[in-house]
Design goal:
It contains 7 helices and 17 strands. It has 290 residues and is α/β, with parallel strands linked by helices. The chain has 2 domains: 172 residues, FAD/NAD(P)-binding domain, CATH 3.50.50; 96 residues, FAD/NAD(P)-binding domain (3-Layer(bba) Sandwich), CATH 3.50.50.60. α1 packs parallel to α2 and α1 packs parallel to α7.
Length: 290
């Protein structure tokens, strides 16, 4: 059992860890090495560096710092978070329990070029199987995605319907060993999707080869799950693609905090580090008050 699990290995998550580990909280940071900072060759607007530093260097130094102080780092993909007596964080390779969560995965960069996808949001297109699966009892649904996240969402939907197709939108499946055996439960369609059609609600999915299928609902689980995806499934209040937090970076769900680009409209390293510090201190106070 960890005191806190931080999801995201960027500046917000590692800044928070500096405060939680120094408060003697058992801290696990989970994330992939895919921070946008890795693409930043030159950073000149972050305080304390007389010379230009790269994002890669900054992240490496931060990682070494939190490790030295006692944080545990795990390179893995978080698939879902469940709230029981405590929080259960499930990854591609295992599951971990904790008393508090910090969401710090940054902003999702899922570019999905499918005509009318946005038009049918809330009218057949959903981003949360837990929230909306009930409305598709015994109906034909699809899950848009090609990774573990998509398989997990499809599994969630089996409570309501057995007619489930995973649409990879022209991509190859990238499934870990944990989910590979689950594929037999679903249809898999690897064709490129061109557009969605319907009147008031989604009715058809059209492919680049000219063919089409009737469909009642499409659940988007594209690429890896983001902080926004986790927030939606936990019932956390969001404002479009931003998680709503208070002055202590706490969400409306007790024990869940958010920091960095996922909770800020001003996406700067300094802001992420500052929010991470506030969240780390708030998490420490929260755990001590349990």
């Amino acid at each position: 059992m960890y005191d806190v699990i931080i999801i995201g290995k960027g500046p917000a998550g590692m800044s928070a860890a500096l405060y939680t580990v120094r408060s003697n909280l058992r801290t696990l940071i989970i994330g992939k090495n895919n921070s946008n900072l890795l693409k930043a060759d030159k950073i000149d607007n972050y305080f304390g560096f007389a010379q230009t530093i790269s994002g890669k260097e900054l992240l490496h130094n931060g990682e070494m710092q939190v490790k030295r102080l006692g944080a545990e780092l795990l390179e893995d993909e978080v698939i879902t978070i469940e709230k029981e007596d405590f929080f259960k964080v499930m990854t591609s390779t295992g599951s971990y329990s904790c008393k508090a969560i910090l969401l710090a995965t940054g902003q999702p960069h899922k570019v999905i070029r499918i005509e009318n996808l946005v038009k049918f949001e809330g009218k057949g297109v959903s981003y949360c199987s837990t929230c909306d699966g009930f409305f598709y009892n015994n109906l034909k649904v699809g899950v848009l995605g090609n990774k573990d996240f998509a398989i997990h969402e499809a599994k969630e939907l089996t409570t309501f319907t057995k007619d489930i197709t995973i649409y990879t939108n022209g991509k190859q499946l990238e499934i870990s060993d944990r989910y590979i055996d689950e594929l037999n439960r679903f249809h898999v369609d690897t064709r490129k999707i061109s557009k969605l059609e319907g009147s008031d609600f989604l009715q058809e999915i059209h492919f680049a080869d000219g063919a089409s299928d009737n469909i009642d609902g499409l659940f988007v689980a594209y690429e890896s799950a983001s902080s926004i995806d986790f927030a939606r499934k936990l019932g956390i209040v969001t404002d479009r693609n931003t998680i709503v937090v208070d002055g202590n970076q706490q969400t409306n769900l007790e024990g869940v905090f958010a920091a960095g680009d996922c909770s800020s409209k001003f996406r700067q390293i300094s802001v992420a580090v500052g929010q991470g510090a506030v969240a780390g201190k708030a998490i420490s106070d929260y755990i001590k008050g349990l």
